[in-house]
Amino acid sequence: MRNITFAEGEFYHVYNRGTDKRAIFVDEKDLDRFFLSMSEFNGLNAIGSIYENRHNRGSRASTETSTEPIVNIIAYCLNSNHYHFVLEQVSEKGVERFMHRLGTGYSKY
User: Nearest CA to 107 among 77, 88, 83, 87?
Assistant: First the structure.
């Protein structure tokens, strides 16, 4: 893997696709989950899993979670087997963290 450094305030086109070009979005439920992931994983503090975060609402742990975004999502395009983003990094390692959380979280879903 390349050693890439992203700069704050800059814009990046990033994308990912399914293994062997297989579909990653099969139905509306998959799209809804991906949109939720885009929102939930775009924060300064890690939330763990979306399931755990949803069930811990109102507890002390969930109130400490920052709503400050790590990237600004400028544009996106979702296709059945891949997706594209234009992201602006607003926090150190924001693009890297967002893409890692999104990819890992959606893959586990």
Answer: 83
Which residue has 């507890």 as its token pair? 59
Q: What share of the chain is helix, strand, coil (3-state, %, to 5)?
A: 40, 20, 40
Residue 54 backbone phi and psi in degrees, to 5: -65, -35
pLDDT tens digits along 54-91: 656 555 444 444 578 999 999 999 999 999 999 999 99
Side-chain half-sphere exposure of 79, counting CA atoms within 13 A: 11
Q: Tell which residue, 108, 93, 100, 109, has the closest CA to residue 16.
A: 100
Count Cα neighbours of 54 within 13 Å in the Cβ-side half-sphere. Answer: 8
More confident position, 94 or 58: 94
User: Distance between CA atoms of 44 and 30, rounded to whole angstroms?
Assistant: 25
Concatenated DSSP letters for 73-96? EEEEEE-SSEEEEEEEE-STTHHH
Which pLDDT score is estimated for 62? 45
Q: Which two tokens stand for residue 89?
A: 């990094």
